[in-house]
Amino acid sequence: MKITIEYLEKLNAYAELIEWFRAHPELEGADYVTVCAALEGDRRRHWSVWLREAIASNASTPPTVLARLAKDEVGEVRAAVAWNRNTSSALLAMLAGDGYLDVRLAVVRNHNTPRAVVGRMAKDIALDVRLAVRAEVLAKEAAEAAAAEKAAEEA
Q1: Closest CA to 21 of 32, 55, 49, 53
Q2: End-to-end alpha-carbon separation of the chain, Å?
Q3: For residues 1 and 62, is the Cβ–Cβ distance under 8 A?
Q4: I need a labelling partner for 11 at 20 to 30 A (CA). Which of 53, 61, 66, 102 fits?
Q5: Contact 126, 132 (CB under 8 A)
Q6: SS3 of residue 11 by DSSP
């Protein structure tokens, strides 16, 4: 994933981050790993985390980048991957066992998460996750019942 000023503007990056990026023209078009390393080397870790989280939540982020970000050291970045509607079911299954609560909650709420994975999460140690599973199951059952009722009315 190449980082450009245009891309940062599309992400609604902080004005200060864009200014910093403009002051480092050698980074224009560099991959996000290189840009994040430069940010951290310049003691701007918070911008590095923000950038990774923004990339992880972006619907146009390639699956290979999402897979890499799913292993990020920062829980909020992994949670952004789990929220992304384009995250694969296999990656969501992996994230279902994450130690960070917000990641597991996002996995439960992502519609790409396989039902079997959501079912296993009903036994999660965290009450919030178990409640989210129940809410998702009830919502899906209600949607299926409404669809069946509508189909019966139309028949």
Answers
A1: 32
A2: 49
A3: yes
A4: 102
A5: no
A6: coil
Element (H, E) at 31: strand 30-31
DSSP 3: E
What's residue 140's pLDDT? 84
One-letter amino acid of 59: A
pLDDT at 155: 81
The structure's pTM equals 0.89
CB neighbour list of residue 90: distance below 8 Å, 6 or more residues apart: none
CA distance 123 to 127: 9
Residue type, 79: A
In sequence order, the 6+-apart residues with CB closer than 8 A to the CB of 89 are: 112, 113, 114, 117
User: Cα–Cα distance between 146 and 37 in angstroms, integer?
Assistant: 50
